[in-house]
Amino acid sequence: MQNWTEVGPVESVPQKGSRVMTTPDGDVAIFRTSSDEVFALFDQCPHKKGPLSQGIVYDKRVACPLHNWVIDLSSGEATGPDEGCTRSFATKVEDGMIYISL
Amino acid sequence: MKEKLVLIGNGMAGVRTLEELLKLAPEKYDITVFGDEPYGNYNRIMLSPVLAGDKTIDQIMINDRQWYIDNGITLHAGKKITHINRVRRQVETAEGEVFEYDRLLLATGSRPFMLPLPGRDLPGVISFRDIADVDTMLETAKSYKKAVVIGGGLLGLEAANGLMIQGMEVTVVHIADVLMNQQLDKPASDLMLNELQAKGLKFLMSHETAAIEGKKRVEKVVFKNGTEIDTDLVVMAVGIRPNIELAQSAGIHCERGIVVDDTMQTFDPKVYAVGECVQHRGATFGLVAPLFEQAKVCANHLAQMGIARYVSSITSTKLKVTGIDLFSAGNFIGDESTEDLVFKDAARHVYKKLVIQDDKLIGAVLYGDTVDGAWYFQLMRDGTDVSSIRENMLFGQHHIGDSGHGAANSVDGLPDDAEICGCNGVCKGDIVKAISKHSLFTLDEVKAHTKASASCGSCTGLVEQLLASTLGSDFNDTPSKKAMCGCTSMSHGEVKNAIKDKGLKTISDLMVALDWKNADGCHSCRPALNYYLLSTWPDYQDDPQSRFINERVHANIQKDGTYSVVPRIWGGVTNANELRAIADISDKYNVPTVKITGGQRIDLLGVKKDDLPKMWADLSEAGFVSGHAYGKSLRTVKTCVGSEWCRFGTQDSTGLGIKVEKMTWGSWTPHKFKIAVSGCPRNCAEATIKDFGIVCVDSGYELHVGGNGGIKVRATDFLCKVATEEEAMEYCAAFMQLYREDAHYLERTAPWIERVGLKSVQAKVVDDHDNRKVLAQRFYESQERSQDDPWAEHAAKQRENYIPIKQVG
Ligand code: SRM
Ligand SMILES: Cc1cc2nc3c(=O)[nH]c(=O)nc-3n(C[C@H](O)[C@H](O)[C@H](O)COP(=O)(O)OP(=O)(O)OC[C@H]3O[C@@H](n4cnc5c(N)ncnc54)[C@H](O)[C@@H]3O)c2cc1C
Ligand code: SF4
Ligand code: FES
Predict the structure, then answer these.
(1) Does a structural domain hold residue B16?
(2) Whole-model pTM?
(3) How many structural domains is chain A composed of?
(4) pLDDT digit string (tens) for A21-69?
(5) Which residue, A51, B13, B471, B536, shows the most beta carbons closer than 10 Å to its own?
(6) How far apart are the C-alpha atoms of B558 and B409, rounded to whole Å?
(7) One domain for residues B646 and B754
(8) Which stretches of sequence are listed as region Disordered (chain A) (predicted)?
(9) Has residue B33 been placed in a domain?
(10) Cβ-based interface (< 8 Å): residues of B facing A
């Protein structure tokens, strides 16, 4: 059973951008791609915990702002030669509202 | 009567032997050449750039037909020799014509190995060896879509890259899990795989081909694991085999290749052989460097000088795919008796591995940063004892014994006998001598005189550096084209021109018009494009999502995710009220560290993102604006106390610095831009390592440009001297505007000036008065839109971007 939490309207996250949602376990980054897909990752880079929410977003990836690791938004895996993974969360959009399963 | 020399094989090794022979004994032989291909002698290596559209067939001819005529050589192009009669000393063509020889030179090269698969004879299944193959590929790319390249070695990847540039969807099939396994180890291969994928190539690694299928022409490739892939073209690049049938049929001793001794003589003393068709001490060959060595030795013996011996030596390899820098040499895999030194910076796509045995360097793989390749290669060939430089050698020649000097002048440090051009074995000393002796000015002239960089071209950068350092500022560099990033094959310059020529106004228009490979671009091209559009079109709508976080939120991100805030302190001058305000604000937001920066202002470190807008509102209230310590923009204007207080001061450097900062703050530039004004030549504000520096003297103001104090220290060039403050400011505005319009993104003034030359900057800013005024005017106009304080604006309007979208728990 998935437990959906309402996050906020899609428009409040910039396209090719991100907003942070705080939780008791730490920040979660909510991403919106250029085609309006929404993804959520734990806001810590697998490299040295850089805040992924602050990175540059392209396709379904984000480049970490600290040392440019590129993280896949759907799996949370570092792409390419880097290895590491950050937690990802299921999301859905209904009637323009983002929901997350924490 | 002259003796008759017959050459079979009009390729790179054979004709090089003739060139060497003509140098030694131009009159000795009556020379006849037979070549299977219907052309003069061309540079086979350059077929890759021809396929990639960077060169034409005409441009890769080494010796056209006129060359043969000029040297009295009879060329039979398009004629194949099918028979050698060693007893009568005759060769026979396919058409049955017979020619006599006194000496015979075999240079028949090699044949691409075609896997013995079902379907390998179908139309559309080819190799990559000669002009005919390239023609077939170019033709196929016009009407078909999909291509499969079998073989992920050097040749396969160059074929794949070329076909992709011609618009095909290309899949590379490789039997191993390491690309170019003759030259690379797994980590380097992984990096390359990644970059090639980003360029748009597809890969099927660890796949073994079982069959090629199709009715009229090739339609698909089937693999041993049962999968298959549709295709319109198959290029086999799985290896080469020495072309020995002719020699064998004449009873000349062959194993894998035509067996030769150290003088390049075959088993028959009248018959010599060079090139890929030979086998020397058990080894066969696939790169031109050793073949050209063989050509020298063979010519020496044909000229009957009889002194040279061929000894095979280590070779190095590079890949001719734009944007991928790769170097490998020697035994780079290592074993139990060797030690590895490894450096990896995945974020910058750099990987280096050095293999050391008994204190000697025996192998190297460099990926992404290859400037030190020549140096490592030299250490390997010389067998230098590296124990004393072991700790630092991974960082390159310039980290041995000194710091603060970047790699740009790496050739300066090489000894005269260091090899620069691996293909043609040309040393640094030869090139420097040729440049000074024959007054050479261009790369082409050096190529013509020394052959350096005339074959595969991968040492072009080093040769240009030698030209630059031998000629100083007289050298006119033709910048080699480097793709902006993996999303395009266009260079920075080409993209900038396209923006103007095609009137491209937004990032998405640009990406469509210029065929960007990834719809959203990537983190390295987007910020560059945003800058180019912004500096080209006054009405451009800035795209915050294409800016690095620091510029997006107007503060510097720190390692723990907090931010630093640096308010502007005009000319480094402050007062008690300002300091009090900063102190109060630091208390209010619990700023953990307050630091005086190296740029004469105050850094408030460790601020939480949510607090930024509130803190800025307070700072605005106290009269501060953003210091842009985060931006590719004007940073600080550093000043000294100057004539107001200092006993040596000649002019009011502090006051002028403040005026200059008020004029230039807020401007966006290709990279950060720093200014300083010193009150006298003692230069306490360090104006001679700034992008723009003013040194006041009694009679006016000396203007200096292109300094840099960071990674690679560079003192400024002297631009000119002016008499008044107003002039100093106008020159500053004009210089900054020229830099804004002309430099590549992330190119500071120092490398920019080295690229375009101080003279061209002086011509536009100093000598041409009207042009200077026009440039300055454009700068002032763009400043009218740039000097709204971003902090005040974000504090008032964009607070939402700084706070969480939601808080739970
Ligand atoms: C704060 C400061 C150090 C300090 O505590 O004094 C500093 C801090 C940083 N410098 Fe610097 N530099 C500071 C003065 C300098 C100076 C000295 C100067 O300006 O007189 C230099 C050498 C002069 C020069 O630039 O030519 C300097 C050369 C660099 C470089 C190398 C630039 C180069 O072209 O070689 C970098 C790296 C870069 O920009 O890519 C850099 C990058 C950085 C960054 C932005 C690294 C980063 O990306 O996070 C640091 C940001 C810290 C922060 O969040 O505030 N910093 N940095 C100085 C801020 C001055 C200011 O008031 O704005
Ligand atoms: C696409 C490509 C890229 C390459 N890139 C590089 C590189 O970057 N660096 C590098 O060092 N090397 C590179 N090479 C390898 C290099 O081109 C070869 O090592 C070199 O050309 C071999 O010279 P050769 O004279 O032995 O053979 P070839 O140049 O092949 O010359 C042999 C000639 O003999 C002719 N011939 C054969 N038999 C007969 C006969 N019976 N009668 C008449 N003529 C005959 C053939 O038609 C051919 O023209 C590349 C090769 C290719 C195909
Ligand atoms: S020198 Fe500059 S970049 Fe390096 S740690 Fe110090 S502040 Fe950071
Ligand atoms: S913390 Fe993300 S790349 Fe280093």
Answers:
(1) yes
(2) 0.54
(3) 1
(4) 999 999 999 999 999 999 999 999 998 899 999 999 999 999 999 988 8
(5) B13
(6) 33
(7) yes
(8) 1-21
(9) yes
(10) 187, 190-191, 194, 344, 346-349, 351, 518-523, 526-527, 544-546, 548-549, 552-553, 557, 559, 561, 800-801, 804-809
